[in-house]
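If your schedule permits, I should be very grateful for your opinion on a structural question. Thank you for your consideration; the sequence and its tokens are set out here:

===
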Amino acid sequence: MTIREEIEEWERNNLSPYASLSCESKGRDREEPECDIRPVYQRDRDRIIHCKSFRRLMHKTQVFYHPQGDHYRTRLTHTLEVSQNARTICKALMLNEELVEAIALGHDLGHTPFGHSGEAVLNSLCEGGFKHNVQSVRVVEKLEKDGRGLNLTWEVRDGILNHQTSTMPSTLEGKIVRYSDKIAYINHDIDDAIRAGLITEDDIPEETHRVLGTSLRKRLNTLIHDVIENSRGLNDIKMSEETENVMYNLRKFMFQRVYKHARTIEQEDKTKQVLRSLFDYYMNNTEMLPQLYLDNIDKGTPKDRSVCDYISGMTDQYAMNVFEEIFMPKSWSY
């Protein structure tokens, strides 16, 4: 018996009857030999960690573009916080920790530069629309590894695709990530907004303090415990009605006071113009795209989709550098 088979046997004997067992995965689009050490979801997690799109997350905006400080979140630190929340919940419920971690680490691989404002720009420009969850699946299926993709399992791709509020994953592990994403960004965005001077702890709604707590640590603790306590022994992942309502009201507060704050909008308007200009340039100068995206157009990918593929993969600074190279005048040299 290989080490992988021993681990799969341990999963069968010890995980919840509702867990997604590695040996029961629906598999990959392309068949490949099994690893003698790692079950399939562990391999998926490792592939995501080692891919280029994952590394680029460290230079993509979460909320605040290019902040003057070392402790603001980026898209990568957000991803790691989602993963930690998800693993804590998953372990307590005796579900598949490798699967939940793979989904969490891959859920934002398709996110644009400049956060959700960048997503909104590409969504308005691309004929078929642009959603970062759909793009994350596109990254792992068609764009990574020079177009070969990562060949991840169906369950990981399903969890990545359906981590948004409007959709529902097929596995409990995917549902954990769906909650963990919201728990992470609401709370760490509050922390960053306080650091930025946009709000203070006293501005946070009284019901939040009453139900969830008066600090980042207390709120995270309350939300994570609530998911665990209300999901134990069930073939579902859920929160208590009161806690979930308070969490969504807190999200509304963040939209009103932080995400739509004048200082935030001012920067968004500028970054949107950068991406619109890049989109128009590459639509009119398609030959300037890297070879992968030209090859995809030759294979039938619509031109605007391929342009979005390229731009969405850029980091904040790379997008700014390309914009400067194309549109800003340069000093004369001879």
Q: What stands out?
A: The chain has one domain: 3-327.
